Fold each of these.
Amino acid sequence: MNGRGLRSLLARRSFLARLGLGASVVGATVASSGAAVAQAAADPSWRPARHAQDDWLDKIPGKHRLVFDSTTASGMEWALHFASNYFTANQDAYGLKDSDLAVVIVARHKSAPFGYNSAMWAKYGNYLSEHAEFADPKTNQPPTVNAYLAAEDGSAQGGLMDALIKKGVHFAVCQMSTRAIAGKIARGTGGHADAIFKQIAANLVGNAHLVAAGIVAVNRAQERGYSFAYGI
């Protein structure tokens, strides 16, 4: 073999050696990652911590668990519609009763005001409407009732919430959003934010729980076996 051929052969061997080394490194990385994932999945030592303030999630009866997250007025409306469909489909196709289904709807961020009853909307409707970016679809004015709770307002969505409450649906209302809303009301009315917060907290819709934060309720519900759905 001449000098040129020898140099070419050595160059190919050097390249293949480097390639083989690279493949080995990549392969080891992937294998190690896969092994770590498999080991973590098989390791029973991790369990989510349990906190007493979340125990209400386990007290809702049901063979199937589902949590809806809503952050806007339309998100709340869709969550209510989908939750209603969930009950209907399980009854029609599976013969299940309302009590067989544990359903929680989270009201946080801009949907938090819909966790308050109509008395709060009658008193603070301007502020709640502004926060939720929601107006009465008939008058384009701030509602004086909780539009999703009240059947008497004649709207298409009116009564959806009340019907689901009667089926056993629970609501997780964001405390952080509620405090922010109370502060906004206090600045606008000259009232005291803490007093307004306590008033709102005492006037939630039926089956409602004031939770530390809506996003925390989403997490805690999933850790306790609730499947997740988002009301867009």
Note: The beta strands are 64-70, 101-107, 170-174, 208-211, 227-230.
Amino acid sequence: MSKLAYITAAILVIPAPALAQIVFQDTPPAAAPAPAKAPGVPSDLDKIECRMQETIGSRLQAHKVCMTKQQWFQAEQDEKNKVKELQDLTPVRPSG
């Protein structure tokens, strides 16, 4: 058997999900320490931030989504948790 065949077989046997384990440990964005503000004044985390998001299934369409910085952070954490759950569900086969 040639070296190329051995290399190809080794690549196919190594489980890709085991090599692609990603660990996310993010901390929430810190609000700048504000000088004594009057009550009811929104913090930096309460500011609205708008982002363009691509429409799934289209390379040309996008839509605008507006949320507070805290909501964006929470949405990103939820997505990272979903990815981690999917990675944890993927069985890792022993090599050899």
Note: The mean pLDDT is 77.
Amino acid sequence: MTPLEAEIRRMIAVDGPISVATFMALCLGHPAHGYYTTRDPFGRAGDFITAPEISQMFGELIGLWAAAVWQTMGTPARLALVELGPGRGTLMADALRAVRVVPAFAAALDVHLVETSPVLQRRQQETLGGIDIPLAWHRDLADIPDFPLIIIANEFFDALPVHQAVKTPSGWHERMVGIGPDGRLAFALHPDPMPGFGALMPDAVAREPAGAVYEWRPADVATDIARRVVNRGGAALAVDYGHVESAAGETLQAVGRHGFADPLASPGEVDLTAHVDFAALARTAQAAGAQVHGPLSQGEFLRRLGIEARAAALRAKATAAQGAEIDVALARLTGAGREAMGKLFKAIAFADPKSGALPGFDS
């Protein structure tokens, strides 16, 4: 039994089963035993690899995207470049190196990294230690200074806690985590249906038969992001994996050592994620007054930003072995195969409506 499981069992013994969202929040963010607060999970030695760790091309293109957006904003003299959940700092390091080709943009930047994990913050400080652009770390987006901003969120939304509901003949019941008959942690349903819940979801989901599972995330984070870019001027780019249309289906999963695991088996020791509902993200941003761009596949987004030309430029200066690695990385970032990210991952942007078209999204 992990230390976090022992604590969760004590909570359940006192207050009864907890929601899936509460369970996920504890597993990932518990201050003493949470997955992200106690380790660096990235890379081949960790549990999974994200796009910035696959190739420098990803972060470089995101940096140049931000520079192009800054130009559409009228080149403000001061800009907050914000990354939510910056991992090891690899994306930001690659982005800031790339934007040296736009000196006025680099000179306008203050970089702000929103990170709750002390372990990862230390790793980010190591990665970005040689950067001569102002850097600041925060635990919350609310701490970002009040001036125009561009927000980057790569594989951020998939780690936000997700609620689940299951349809029964008596209505939709929230899925909970409790103690099963065998003494292990187990999924259960709240005994009371959620009144009026079916009317709050898309019609196609509401018509699903009994047994259907629906996942949703609270809108507060996406609303906050959208309001900030509208009120201060700027844009937010989210790249994540998920589905374009809201639909029923269970996507909560656990990953450890580059393989799937039981989400309930080792609380705090494995990563928990769930697919992002991009249609819900878009609805939330629009309701907050933002203009939504996309979503479109990561592969298409990166191709529009010029990843193939960048790969060719890197390949021209590379050895044969390095060239082969570049080709593998390009295929993984843009391809549609089972191990590739190009189709499953999507890009979406929220922007101040006055910004107009955004690079990569204007076909």
Note: The chain has 13 helices and 16 strands.
